Amino acid sequence: MSAEFSSPVAAPARALPPSDVSSAVGFVGLAGLIAWIIFCRSYPEIAALLGIDGEFSGARGVLSGPHAALAGLLFSAGPMALWSVLVDKVHLRASTGIDWNLKRPFAEVLPTSLVKLAGLWTTWGVLAAFYALARWYWDGQYLFAMDVLKYAALPLVVLSVPYVIWLDRHLVNLHDGAWHVGALVVGQGGWETKAIAKHARAWAIKGFFGAFMISILPGGFAEVVEADLAQMAGNPVDLAMKLIALLFVIDVQIGTVGYLVTMRPLDAHIRSGNPFVAGWLAALICYPPFVWGVIGGNGQILSYEVATAGWAYWLEAQPALLWLWAGVLVALTGVYAWATVVFGIRFSNLTYRGVLTNGPYRFTRHPAYLSKNLFWWASVMPFLVTNGSVADAIRNCCFLLVVNGIYYWRARTEEAHLLAEDAKYREYHAWMEQRGLITAPLARLMASFTRRGAAPGSQPSAFPAE
Description:
By secondary structure, the protein is mainly alpha-helical. 61% of the residues lie in helices and 2% in strands. It has 2 domains: 3-102 and 170-174 and 216-447, no CATH class; 103-169 and 175-215, no CATH class.
């Protein structure tokens, strides 16, 4: 094992460590989102009942446009933020870096805040320049994200002023990453390269993934709001695909909130971005623009769908099995969405924002990756091809196995990051390896293979397969 992935692992924990995020946070956000979807689907009837007509009502059609999808973020984020503060009282945690008993005078914090604002605005300017230079942001689905960010820019700049000054009155450590960047920009001494690099990683994650998540909001939302329930009845394929679409909408909506709401008072700030180059490579290869030439359908490097027809085609003549298979696919997608929902407002790739030990993470350390990769095998059926080519079936399976390997690689780099950051995660990692319903048997299986192939006196890997 390379030094990059070597991290300390705690002794087996006697009990599962408590989660830094309560299960209720994500579910109240889910409830708000579902309520908004129902409202959007029912808008024609609501408009008729209230006598709303005219240009704004759009002839009383369902609310399935991109702005309705964007509004869904508010209905998800609002309940989660309120629950976090009013019930879980996360704003009082020491991990926020805030001491509300500190009430520094305005005049005392203003010089520091101005430096910090210079750093924050510089960071946003660099992100804006990146968006302007990267061609893929100005085509297709990304155009919506660029419009949203363009119109949000001025309000964010204006609101950042009172927010930064207000927060600086209570922060324990005033010299955060934004301050270090600002000190460099304005020529003030005291800035540190390490702090700037940490700040840059966090904002690179927010900038890259935030734009992507916003860009995919409208498509799935419209599909769900416009779905014809009568057409789905009795049809396992249509019903499964629409339920899967709904679950992906839930995943995208909650996930987007996680990328956008990284606020210290909610204890949702990015404590650190993954410092390993391998972690970034493993993650970025799975997202546009990189994924467009690597993973997926025909013409890509890892094409595992050549001459495939999918589960509905091969099981069409067996209604009972078709219903069963549809249920399996919905269940796998449900686990995938659940794995996002339980993060609440803390979901994002490549970040450490606390330790999650509840929900599906009670059974496996990587429920989203596990369910997603199983879903691909069950839905695509790469081993069955319509052209009868054994070579194509073998290639499909081999390439999908490589994709599975990429996600295993991602999991290892994420674990290396978290193991190095938090003793609680080390306890969780050890507990799961000993007692996790899914992880523990896989760990024992991997350990048995490791012992057989290891040289005498060597130590097994700290990262069991999952």
